């Protein structure tokens, strides 16, 4: 019995130490683990010009302008701040106004020049009829409608 | 404890679990068949993702099972290290390849889903990366448990790896909440209830039940085979030395 208890204590203490070590490492690398920066980070000058980053947020409503040769201009917002984005290339299917988006590129003279644009979708799944019914009833809480609701930010 | 002691006897374990094998097999095929039919043909398309959402019925339960198998492997490892139960190492060794396959399935179907929806096969965000680490942990566990001439030393080394690596499981689960990721947050196992329509949730849960039954089915077959192989080894040795 004694040996069993000793081993149990040892495993428990080792487990706690590993958890603490992992928490410390993850906190230390927090900046590198985030997949994208927000428009607020850029506005607050946390990102240097010419530094390659990913910018994430929602595509602002009525901000998408299609140009010639696959050029597209739009604005990315985190509801607090907004950054204009320039992109030339093929957009993913889920790219649309009000949807989450992650663009990779560099900031140049206040414009984010992206060379890759990825779509980010939210955690809501439902048939189209249900989505329409909820929208008709004015109860919509997902992305792409009311930016001021808490879902707008938490689902980024 | 008495309960575990009873099951820890390999012979009793064999006589108790063998009759379950055909039942588990039948129920696995039944629930997977029904789940796939409902998910792929009956469930509605998604309002944003269209028909691509059907990958979810294969992908999401596979990711759950990847974490579930690892958790049971870590529990087996703890029981094996602390209480030295003879069946604990057998259970861990039997679980590892099943968990590795589920992890691979989650990674592969996730990649196939990511391309049309996100626009990329792979990104190094926290969720995808921690899931890839889980796959390597399974591979490492299998490699380590076979790396020693003395199988008991191999089991011990692998058990330590399984326990240390368990820290990755909560990291996978909460990666989408702790950091911003391309992968969306949880839709089913979350504080304020599922954010997925019941017509899609039921086929998903049925698939999860099917995967779980499959795991138990294969687990018992593999444990049976391992215990029997051990007996044959013992008999051979007795013949050589006796």
Mean pLDDT of chain A: 84
Biggest sheet strand line-up of chain A: 1-3-4-6-5
Class from secondary-structure proportions of chain A: alpha+beta
Q: Find the CATH superfamily of the largest domain in chain A.
A: Nucleic acid-binding proteins
Shape annotation of chain B: globular
- Chains forming the largest contact: A-B, 43 and 40 residues
What value does the average pLDDT of chain B take?
A: 92
The main sheet of chain A comes to: 5 strands, mixed, barrel
What general form of chain A does the structure show?
extended
CATH fold title of the largest domain in chain A:
OB fold (Dihydrolipoamide Acetyltransferase, E2P)
Characterize the quaternary organization of these chains. heterodimer
The helical percent of chain B reads over 70%
Helical content of chain A (DSSP H or I, runs of 4+): 25-40%
CATH class of the largest domain in chain A: Mainly Beta
Total beta strands of chain B: 0
Percent in strands of chain B: under 5%
Spans of at least 5 consecutive residues with low confidence of chain B: none
Structural notes for this entry:
The complex is a heterodimer of chains A (156) and B (242). Chain A is 32% helix and 27% strand. With 156 residues, chain A is an alpha+beta fold. Chain B has 242 residues and is mainly α. Chain B has one domain. Chain B is built from nine helices and no strands. The two termini of chain B are 36 Å apart. The relative contact order of chain B is 0.16. The model of chain B has no long low-confidence stretch (mean pLDDT 92). The A-B interface holds A 4, 7-8, 11, 14-15, 18-19, 22, 26, 30, 33-36, 38, 56, 91-95, 99, 102, 116-132, 155-156 and B 44-49, 53, 56, 78, 81-83, 116-120, 123-126, 163-164, 167, 171, 178-182, 184-187, 190, 195-197, 199-200.
